[in-house]
Design brief:
70% helix, globular, two-stranded antiparallel ribbon, 387 residues, mainly alpha
Length: 387
C-alpha cells in the first residue's frame, strides 16, 4: 500500500474508534428510524365502523389497501362520480377516495366545491394556483415561459398510490438535520485534536509532512460523511418502502405537490433527494473541517453550524428581493426537494435556465473545492507560525 493510503486508513480508523462517533451515529440512526416508524408504533386511530381503536400500523395498511384499489385511474369525471357515490355509501367505501378528496379540498378549500367538482374545473383551478405562485415568486416572462412549456404535458394525470416514496420525501428535513448534527459533532476533532494535544508541530519532523496528512485527513472525513449519509438514507428508504410499499415510482408529482410544475415522477424526486443528501454530506464534512481550522475549536464549529442552520430555517427573505431570495434558496437548509418543488425561481446562466437543484450541484462543487484549498493553506500556515 502507498504511504498516503496508510495515512488515510489510519485517519478513518481514528474517526471511527472515538466513542463519541459511535454514540452519535447510533443515536442518529435510531432517530432516523423513529421518524419513519413513529406513526406505526406510537399512535392509535378510531375505527368509525366498528367503534374500536386500531394501531397506527393497521391504519397505515388499511389506507394503503384502500388507496391501491383506485390506483392507476385517470382523474376524470367518471372517477369523481365514483368518489361521490362512495362518500354517500359508507365510511368504509369512502376510505379509498380519502386522499383524492383531500387533494381536491386543498385546491378549493371548501367542502361543497370539493364534492361537486368536475375534472375540467379541477385542472383549471390547479393551473390557476400555479400561475398565482409564479406571480407571488416574481418570476419574469422568460421563467414563466419555461414553466408554461412544462405544464403542457402534465394534465390530465393519473391517481396512483405512492406513499412509500412520499414518506421518503417527507423525511428529508429530519435527515438533513440529523446529518448536520452528526458531522458537526464527529468531524471537527479530526483537526482540533492536534491543537488540543499540541502535537501539530511534530508533523513537521515526519517524513511525509503536512501536505499528505492534510489530504488524508480531509478524505477520511469526507468518506465518513458520505458513509453516514448512505446509512441514514438506507434506513429511511428501507423502512419507508417496507411500511408503506414500493408502489408508485412513476406516480405524477402533481398529486403530491399540487402547484409543482416539474415533470419528474415521485420516485425520481425521491432519488434526487438521496443524491442531494450525498452532496450535502460532502459539503457538511468539508465545511466542518474547514471551520475548525479557522476557529481552532470544535465546540464553536458545532454552535455555528447548528445555530446558523436553524436561523436559516426561521428566516425567509421576500421573493421581490430576487437576488437575495435566489441565493437563500441555495443554502443547505433550503436544499430540500420539497422546497424546490414549490420554488419555480430559475437561474439564468450563460443563456440557459437552471433549476434550483442544478444550480446547487454547481455551487456546492465550487464551495467544496474552495474550502478544501483554503483549509490546506490554513493547515500549512498554522503549523509553521502557530507557536
Amino acid at each position: 500500500m502507498s504511504k498516503f493510503s496508510d495515512l488515510y486508513l489510519w485517519e478513518l480508523r481514528k474517526i471511527w474508534r472515538r466513542r463519541i462517533t459511535k454514540i452519535t451515529l447510533a443515536v442518529m440512526a435510531v432517530l432516523a428510524a423513529m421518524s419513519i416508524l413513529g406513526d406505526a408504533l406510537f399512535y392509535e386511530y378510531s375505527d368509525g365502523d366498528n367503534d374500536e381503536n386500531i394501531s397506527g400500523y393497521t391504519q397505515i395498511q388499511r389506507k394503503a389497501q384502500a388507496s391501491r384499489s383506485i390506483s392507476g385511474r385517470t382523474i376524470d369525471d367518471a372517477m369523481l362520480d365514483d368518489m361521490r357515490a362512495a362518500i354517500d355509501t359508507s365510511e368504509q367505501a369512502a376510505m379509498q377516495y380519502e386522499e383524492l378528496y383531500g387533494y381536491l379540498w386543498g385546491l378549493y378549500g371548501d367542502d361543497d366545491k370539493t364534492y361537486a367538482s368536475d375534472a375540467d374545473t379541477m385542472y383549471q383551478e390547479r393551473l390557476a394556483g400555479v400561475r398565482r405562485l409564479w406571480d407571488f415568486q416574481y418570476l419574469d416572462d422568460g421563467e414563466k415561459a419555461y414553466w408554461e412549456q412544462k405544464e403542457t404535458g402534465i394534465s390530465p394525470f393519473q391517481w396512483q398510490y405512492a406513499d412509500g416514496f412520499v414518506q421518503i420525501l417527507a423525511s428529508e428535513n429530519m435527515l438533513n438535520m440529523l446529518l448536520l448534527f452528526l458531522l458537526a459533532i464527529c468531524l471537527p476533532s479530526v483537526f482540533a485534536e492536534e491543537h488540543l494535544r499540541k502535537t501539530d508541530q511534530l508533523i513537521l519532523s515526519s517524513r511525509f509532512g503536512k501536505q499528505k496528512l492534510y489530504g488524508a485527513k480531509l478524505l477520511a472525513g469526507v468518506t465518513f460523511g458520505v458513509l453516514s449519509a448512505v446509512l441514514l438514507g438506507a434506513i429511511t428508504c428501507v423502512l419507508s418502502l417496507w411500511l408503506y410499499g414500493t408502489d408508485g415510482f412513476d406516480a405524477c408529482m402533481q398529486m403530491v405537490v399540487t402547484e409543482c410544475s416539474w415533470t419528474m415522477t415521485v420516485g425520481q424526486a425521491a432519488v434526487l433527494f438521496l443524491v442531494l443528501v450525498l452532496v450535502l454530506s460532502v459539503l457538511y464534512s468539508v465545511l466542518a473541517m474547514f471551520l475548525v481550522k479557522l476557529l481552532k475549536n470544535s465546540i464553536a464549529v458545532l454552535g455555528i453550524l447548528v445555530g446558523t442552520f436553524f436561523l436559516c430555517l426561521l428566516v425567509q427573505p421576500p421573493y421581490h428581493l430576487r437576488l437575495i431570495s435566489r441565493l437563500y434558496a441555495l443554502l443547505p437548509s433550503s436544499a430540500l426537494v420539497d422546497r424546490m418543488l414549490k420554488n419555480d425561481c430559475l437561474y439564468h446562466v450563460l443563456g440557459h435556465y437552471l433549476t434550483g437543484w442544478q444550480m446547487i450541484l454547481i455551487v456546492y462543487a465550487i464551495a467544496v473545492l474552495l474550502m478544501a484549498w483554503l483549509g490546506g493553506k490554513l493547515y500549512r500556515k498554522y503549523q509553521i507560525t502557530g507557536r
